[in-house]
Amino acid sequence: MIQSDAQIKYYQLIQYSEGGLQNHKCLYPGKNIDPDYRFFPFDYTWAVKGEGKTFREECVFQYPYFFALASIPIYSLFGVFGLTWVCLFLYLVTSFIVLGYIEKIVGLKSVLFRSLLAVIVISGYPIYSAYEYTETTLAVILVLVFLFYILDQSSASPKFSRKPVIGLLLGFVASIAPYFRSEMFIYLFLAGALYLVLNSFQIFPLIRKNRFTLIGFLIGIAFFAVWNQIEFGNIFGVRGRISLGDLSGSGIGRQLVLIKSFFLGDSEKLGFLKAGGLLVVLGLVSLLYPRFKNFPTHSLEIVFWSIFGILSVIIVSILSPYNPGGLFAGLRFTDVSFYCLVITAAYFLYHLENFDSFGFKKGFLVFAGIILISQVYLQSRLLKSFFPLMNRVQESQVQLLNIWKEGEKENLPVIHKNLFDALLISVSYLNQYHFLAINEKEANDLQDILYKNDFPGFHLFWYDGEKPYDNNSSKKLYDEKINNRYEFPARHYQLVSDRTELGYRIQRYRKIGEK
Q: What are the transmembrane regions (predicted)?
């Protein structure tokens, strides 16, 4: 889907593919009549504009620079619709990589349990991230493959190639993942710290085993940091710098609200406990089962993947300064954690398979089977509601876009009264002028500009109800640019039609004296 966050990434892709790799200024078709970006239709958290916030430009989109560059070849070959399909393809690749790891590295033999895990992996909540044009799927693949390789190379009998060039290349490629999504820094740091603890801080033997991969990773981190510094004046890039600032400025009360909504969900989005809580339960059981009589001690793999999966969910949710999104997109920050919990379940089942006392392990096998079947059932219910919902959202968006398109041939711009409407602009942004006027003064000034530039009319568009509060925005931004209300002062133009579609008001204005 090309809306909300995905549309900004798409504009950024067009910006670099058409203007060059150093063209960082926000793509803005209306800048020929609004060179100062005063009526630019996007604001925080999608774009940063204004003095004091600049990255050598008066307006920059916040999304990852390197992801836009990586997408240019895909866009050149397949166009806009290929972008979403590539993300879905990468999601399937991730699923097969995880299932291949379970089969080849974990060694789980049970056809029943492998089938249940396969269904869970393929239909799990990470699919909701892949349903739109996003960097998440690519970042998840890079981090998982990096972790798989490092853990394998540290084992007594590695199954992957130990050729130095493979380690260097893999480490270098994986290093870009944190520049795609900031939370990947948390995953990689947590994985490294946990593995050191579980290996009794044997730092030098671990470094020696993984030296080429770590060298490649550190070279990549430095390379991309220097590239960011050259392009944006900051080693973290636009998104990384903004995220650090937002985290340091986020109050405890706001963070608690974000954490609560992440785990429990709310009226606008799915909660983690509903989508992945059963896997956490299985992860906890895998940690506790050696306490029962005659059970073997933990394997390093179970301890690592279970603790890492559970801790990463908690830490990422605590440290993220953002609401990850509404509807089914609210869990995308923890896609890596989901796969880690599935791998934990695989290792747990593998050890149950290889334990001699069938009578004692039977209860655990039955328990694990119930948990996995219940997880499959929950995921099927969620998917059953997800796809119809996305279809309705897309149909509604197309319905609204078609209304704007009526004025495309006449060169009628669209004026938005608030930022809430901006998530629906989509590909229309490339074919029509879109402007934002948040109060009467801006509305008057914008009409003066349109009149002087001989525009025959415009569409005025806004949501006519109460806008839900977004925890990503400040109270000031919400009041001034999202939930703002004012009577539009017609100037040089007169109202010729007024209708309501899907809760949105669409008014058409034409220049006074023209038919």
A: 74-99, 111-128, 134-151, 163-180, 186-205, 212-230, 271-290, 302-322, 328-350, 362-378
Nearest to 307 by CA among 332, 343, 333: 343
Closest CA to 108 of 302, 303, 367: 302
Strand locations in 182-332 (E) = none
Report how far residue 116's alpha carbon sits from residue 104's, in angstroms, rounded to the nearest whole number: 17
Flag whether the pTM goes above 0.85.
Answer: yes
pLDDT digits (tens, 9 = 90+) for 296-314: 556 778 888 999 999 999 9
First CA to last CA distance, the chain: 37
Peptide bond into 45 cis (omega under 30): yes
Q: Cα(92)–Cα(78) distance, rounded to whole angstroms?
A: 18
Task: Copy the structure tokens of residue 130.
Answer: 């892949």
Tokens for 347? 């290792």
Q: SS3 string of 22-78? A: CCCCCCCHHHHCCCCCCCCCCCCCCEEECCCCCCCCCEEECCCHHHHHHHHHHHHHH
Integer-rounded Cα radius of gyration of the chain: 26
Going by pLDDT thresholds of 50, 70 and 90, the confidence category of residue 514 is low
Q: How far is CA 44 from CA 25, 51, 59, 240, 486, in A?
A: 15, 14, 11, 14, 21
* DSSP secondary structure of 321-378: -S---SBT-TTGGGHHHHHHHHHHHHHHHHHHHT-S-HHHHHHHHHHHHHHHHHHHHH
